[in-house]
Structure formats: structure tokens, C-alpha cells
Design goal:
By secondary structure, the chain is of the alpha/beta class. Keywords: Membrane, Transmembrane, Transmembrane helix.
Length: about 220
């Protein structure tokens, strides 16, 4: 018959073995959890890096596309050599060779062109100064449909460095002018309208990029 002390020793040994086994299991579980956490963290970091790279590449591609769009001429546009367009500030009337004018000597005061839509014709000498600051000037005559006029007015109001006004004397129904550049279209849905805005609002033709389009002359 086994002694009581011998049984106690056996029980203690078994208990210690179970404790040791539990500790080993805990350590193994901790190691697994750490591995899982590290793996998950690595996957998240890799995904974030990949997403960030995609965003950066996408942004660079958009910038590249925009730059290419600015280089390409807009189909049907007319161009004048900027070097031949006067840029003197004068207080006397100026006779321009094109209508609406796309450059030349002009008033010291510019028309406000921060998305301003005018219902009355503008003084050409002031509007030309706005073009010098990089604005696109949208004009229209009685041939333009009211819906097209409204669509263009909405576009202008949302676009800094633009202005819009009627001009009954111009040849085309709708005309877009920038410094040395001009385009005539028949309706607002023409995709060249957006192309002209993209290229020439503060575009490479601008003699004074970044100059103000506010605090100028306000019309009706």
C-alpha cells in the first residue's frame, strides 16, 4: 500500500506538469497571436503603401493629362501673336482688329473677373485688361439659345478668372476669348468649351499670371 506522502508527491508532480504544460500552451498561443498581429499589421501597411502609391500615381497622371491638354490647341481656335498685341495702359478709346478683342492696349482698370456674369455689354478696354490677368471672357449674341446662355453663366459663376457678357455685334453665337486666343461655338454643349477653359483660364498665354480679378471695375 502506497504511503500518503508518496501520493502527495505524485500529485504535486502531476500538478506542476499540468502548470508547465499550461504555461507552454500560453506561450505558444502568445507567439501565434504575435505572429498573426505582425502579419496583419504588415498586410495593412502594405495595403496603405499600395493605396498611397496608387493615389500618387493617379494624381500624377491627372496632372500629366492636364499639362498635355494645355499644350494641345483647341480645335477651331484662332490665335494672334502675343508679341504683336499692345499692352500699354491708356485712357483713350482703342480700336481693336478683332471682335471681341483678345488683347491690345487697354484701360488701367480691369473688369472684375472672379466668375462675374454681366447682363450689359462691357467696355472692351476694361475687359481686355481682364484677359491680360489670365481670364477667359465668354460673350454671346441674340443667336445664342437662352438655355445655352444659362448653362454658360452657371459655369462662369463656378470658375474664378472668368467673366461673361452679351455682345450683339460679334459674328458667332457664343465666343470665348483669352489673351491672343478666341473660339466660336454654336452651343454650350460643345466639348471645346470645357477644353478652352481648361487650357486658357490662367493658362500659358497669360501675360500677368496671378494678377487680381477682383477689386476692379464692376458692371451690371
Amino acid at each position: 500500500m502506497a504511503s500518503k506522502s508518496g501520493k502527495t508527491t505524485t500529485d504535486n508532480t502531476a500538478r506542476q506538469a499540468r502548470i508547465a504544460e499550461m504555461r507552454r500552451a500560453d506561450k505558444a498561443r502568445d507567439r501565434r497571436n504575435k505572429i498573426i498581429a505582425i502579419t496583419a499589421s504588415t498586410a495593412v501597411v502594405a495595403a496603405l503603401i499600395g493605396f498611397g502609391s496608387w493615389v500618387l500615381m493617379s494624381q500624377k497622371q491627372k496632372e500629366k493629362d492636364a499639362a498635355e491638354a494645355r499644350k494641345a490647341p483647341v480645335s477651331g481656335e484662332q490665335s494672334w501673336d502675343a508679341k504683336t498685341l499692345g499692352r500699354n495702359h491708356v485712357d483713350t478709346p482703342v480700336s481693336y482688329p478683332m471682335n471681341p478683342p483678345v488683347g491690345g492696349d487697354h484701360s488701367p482698370r480691369w473688369m472684375n473677373c472672379n466668375g462675374d456674369v454681366y447682363t450689359d455689354p462691357l467696355p472692351e478696354v476694361n475687359a481686355v485688361h481682364s484677359l491680360e490677368h489670365g481670364a477667359v471672357w465668354v460673350t454671346y449674341n441674340d443667336k445664342a439659345a437662352k438655355a445655352d446662355v444659362d448653362t454658360l453663366a452657371e459655369k462662369v459663376r463656378k470658375t474664378p478668372y472668368t467673366l461673361m457678357s452679351p455682345d450683339k455685334t460679334q459674328a458667332g453665337a457664343i465666343m470665348l476669348s483669352a489673351w491672343g486666343k478666341q473660339l466660336s461655338v454654336s452651343d454650350a454643349a460643345d466639348p471645346r468649351v470645357a477644353a478652352f477653359f481648361t487650357k486658357y483660364v490662367q493658362g500659358p498665354q497669360t501675360p500677368e499670371p496671378g494678377a487680381a480679378c477682383t477689386n476692379g471695375l464692376a458692371g451690371k
